[in-house]
Every structure is written in C-alpha cells, then in structure tokens.
Amino acid sequence: MKKIAGLLIILAALGGCEDASNTFEKAQQAAKTTVDGLQEQIKSVDLSKINLDQFGDAAASAKALMESIEKASDINFTDTKALNDTLEQVEAAYEKLVDLTSESRAEALMDKLLDAVPNEETRKAIENSLSH
Fold it and tell me: Is residue 91 over pLDDT 70?
C-alpha cells in the first residue's frame, strides 16, 4: 500500500511539474511577444519628423544623407555593384555633412537614420562603409 501511495504522490508531482512547465512556456512566449513589439516600436523612427532646417545651409546635405540611407534600406545584397554604389553615396553624403556642420551633428543624424533601418545586415554594411 505504501508503494502505491508513493507512486501516486510521484505522479501528482510530475503532473504539477508539467502544468508549471506549460505555464512557464506561456509566460515566456508572452514576454517574447512584448519584447518584439517594443523593438518594432523603437525601430519605427519616423524620418519625416526629422527637422532638416536645423542644419541650416547644410539641409540639402542632410536630406541627401537621409535619401541615401533610405535607398540603402531597399538595396538587394546580391547586386554587389548596386550595393557598393549605394554605400559610396551614403559615405559621400555623410562626409559632406560633416564638412558643412560637424562630426558630432552628422553622427547624431546618422544614429537617428540608422535606428530607422529595419535590417541589421543593412545597418552593419552602412556602419562598416563609414568606418574606413
């Protein structure tokens, strides 16, 4: 009788563990969904809200940088010529903005623009093109 009672206790404990495991998995999935949603909100910077007038005479250069980043966001990585051309445009626009303003102002704009790029591979390619 003691063996049967012991077996029943073990089965009840295992059933409780399975319920706890299922509850944990549901909580983990809910947390993942919440984090994914927050990351999407962070990435969805509205570029139209960037006031290019703050750059004064360099507003055209700031706009050119913004447009080159948008173009880079849509680039097909299998087309290496288009990719290299686009990254060269980003680099040229960035350098021109640095020349007309300052490195810190150009970098601040670049950070905002990169935050809006949804593809990690694209962000890294842009960052690498600017670091050499």
Answer: yes
